[in-house]
Amino acid sequence: MAARVALSGHLWTVAPAIVTFVRRPAVPPARPFRLAFTDPVAGALALTGFLHEPPGARQLLVVLHGLGGSCESSYARRFASAAYAAGIACLRLNLRGADLESADFYHAGLTADLDTVLGSETVASFERVALVGFSLGGHTLLRYLGERAGEDRPLARGVTAAVAVCAPLDLELGATALDGPGNALYRRYLLGGLRAVADAVELRRPGAIAAPRAVRGRVRGIREWDGLVVAPRWGFASAEDYYARASAGPLLGRVATPSWIVLSENDPMVPAGTVRDALRGVSAATEVTWTKRGGHVGFPPGLDLGRRGPRGLESQLLAWLGERL
Predict the structure, then answer these.
(1) Which of 21, 41, 245, 251 is least crowded, fewest Cβ atoms below 10 Å from its Cβ?
(2) Are 61 and 132 within 8 A, CB to CB?
(3) Is 92 helix (H, G, I), strand (E, B) or coil?
(4) Domains of the chain in sequence order
(5) Active site includes 267?
């Protein structure tokens, strides 16, 4: 029975990815989003994405993708289509460097970029804003909400709600799980995306990546990558120091914005055991829903998360968000 349950999680993780690789989900009309800013280390940079804006929309959803992905990831495209059909604007945002056109790259706790986007003229033109994060994008937005819960660092204007789907909450436990013997396929996929970002950064800013390309090509684990590439760029002493200082888990108790964390009990990339301890500390503003169906950001069309209205991940998330926007 346990083996069958585990297989189900893998199938719902891999099968949707294969289908969308063959035929990417269609998206509604959009205009490019580009926000220039200056980083003290990397210099002139820009955050990019696509804004889908139905006529007359006054509400905006900002969507963050996962590790090794981009705003073109299938789940981001599907969600944008569902939001547009509901009359809600949607900004599919690339995390720093994910567009392969940047001289720098993101890490799991880099919330400054999100705050910069939320303070932009484009976002400020909407009356209410909600955040939606998938996988590592969910982690980043939860950390942002935890960091910005006090008067000393206020939340961006207009943000009323947030949803995190299949988000890792403890980076240490998450890396250990991903580096496990049963996750070689996922590691290969993630590292492929990370190498592409690093190569693009180095092309634009030679010497920006501490580990040479040949060394990066030999990396076989997430922890090893984080120690060789992420930690040196962002001032962490090691991968372990990075995980300890950047994880969202310790800040979940501070979140004051209505938030919904959706997790799958059969997620092979973010196993339940890696997040349960962190979830014990969530604030009263946070709802947590576990589903026995689906895998990592892949779910059956009839998914029921307990919300009124049509079933399916996007419809259920929009039903919850619609009550808070």
Answers:
(1) 21
(2) yes
(3) strand
(4) 2-322 (3.40.50.1820)
(5) yes
